[in-house]
Amino acid sequence: MITYRDAMALDLPVLVSMEKILFADSPWSMGQFKEEFKGVPRTHFFTVAVDGNNQIIGYAAVMVPAPGVEADVLTVGVLPEYRKAGIGTAFMEALENWASDKESNAMMLEVGVDNASAIALYESLGYSKISVRQNYYGTGLDALVMRKDL
Ligand SMILES: CC(C)(COP(=O)(O)OP(=O)(O)OC[C@H]1O[C@@H](n2cnc3c(N)ncnc32)[C@H](O)[C@@H]1OP(=O)(O)O)[C@@H](O)C(=O)NCCC(=O)NCCS
Fold this sequence. Notes:
By secondary structure, this protein is α+β, with helices and mostly antiparallel strands. It has helices at about 10-20, 30-35, 85-100, 115-125, and strands at about 5, 45-50, 55-65, 70-80, 105-110, 130-135, 145-150. The protein contains four helices and seven strands; from the N terminus they run βααβββαβαββ.
């Protein structure tokens, strides 16, 4: 059974190792995770999904820099063998609920223009494409900016 809990600082080495599988092109380093994690719980929320053996199988994070401003989805990832089972959707709903509690009125995110599965996930949840950021993930790697009103 899959369950969800807040991430802990102790989880960060596991998340760093999963980055290489989930985001091979631009994995976050331990330093980047630590920097973002400093915002927990005031401005940042990190959640993990764990399987029946307490192994982390996915994670997601969002930032609301100040109460009432737009939320920025920082990351969402699920190990390949656990995909298409609703975990990404559950993560996004948890991020949206947390952002709503921080009085955000909108969610923003960037996604690779060729990341069809993630774009399909976001569209299924009501996100709209609003612009393209060229070279966001590196030369020639453009990002789509998507937004949803909360
Ligand atoms: C994007 C990702 C998080 C989706 O996670 P997931 O747990 O598979 O998502 P869900 O099972 O909740 O999927 C929800 C909906 O998204 C869409 N979707 C998800 N994966 C899809 C795929 N491979 N093809 C088409 N649609 C897809 C579907 O509409 C799906 O609904 P359905 O299962 O009823 O058809 C996962 O594929 C992933 O970790 N990818 C690698 C990391 C990544 O790119 N993250 C996003 C960075 S912006």
